Amino acid sequence: MDEAQIDERGRPMPPQESGETATLLGFLDYQRATLEWKCRGLSDAQLRVALPPTSMTLGGLLKHVAYVEDYWFTQVVAGEPPAEPWTIEDWEADPDWDWHSAADDLGDELRSLWTERVERSRAVVDSRLAQGGSEALDEVHPAWGGQGRVSLRWVLVHMIEEYARHNGHADLIRESIDGQTGE
Q1: Which helix (H) or strand (E) is 151 found in, with range?
Q2: What domains does the chain contain, in order, with CATH numbers?
Q3: Farthest-apart Cα atoms in the chain, separation
Q4: Looking at residue 84, what DSSP letter applies?
Q5: pTM for the complete prediction?
């Protein structure tokens, strides 16, 4: 397979002529890299800036997608129990704990948490693909506390959608912080 082309923002461009698996993974990595770019170079205080009327911050966004990575790939696809820090909080008392608690975290901690979870997710996907090839995309996994089932393909598409939606939020928040714009 050809080496990924990197754009001027440091993002790997998704392959234009490739199979389904490489295309899905290419678009997911592109979206992940877009979020990293939107949060790059910001101070702790800047990661806590909200753009009213929402209370959403880039720090909260990093922590939220770290949780979403862990949920879908580690818990659902790999079938492992939740890991810290997701086990230390009463989610019923604060369903948006991942967003709210980020205000107490340092930027480097948030970036590390997100990076670690992305790497864990990649390892889960790599393991599944190594075991089952492209057929691993069809393998289904229990989700939503056993109330439904999803394929690895569905998880990958959902994660692309999750990042793309939140990257739109990140664009607006970043522009409000320092005027930086871009796709």
Answers
A1: strand 148-151
A2: 20-178 (1.20.120.450)
A3: 48
A4: T
A5: 0.94
